Amino acid sequence: QVALVESGGGLVQAGGSLGLSCAASGSITRVNDMGWYRQAPGKQRELVATITSGSMTNYADSVKGRFTISRDNAKKTVYLQMNSLKPEDTAVYYCNMKITRFLGLADYWGQGTQVTVSS
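-> structure tokens emitted (119 positions)
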């Protein structure tokens, strides 16, 4: 079994900052790409940022320059630092990891954490 547990999030005023983290546990051979996605009410889930096992990063245009994704391979953890938050960043944020186990490669998701930015 593999579990991804998210922490962080909450309520912040526009212009403020929040940090999210997501740690994987269980029978894991290797954690490959990691990422963060978000889903606002009435909208589809969208990519926020990804980071490869070689720490190459990719960001949605809407968060470039404001959000930073990072990872700690030893801790099997991915982080998202969010600065200069805007009301339109309000959403449930989900972490994602592509994990290799003895059965092969599979996608795993965190439980989601609410981020609310007030104007």
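The chain has a mean pLDDT of 96.
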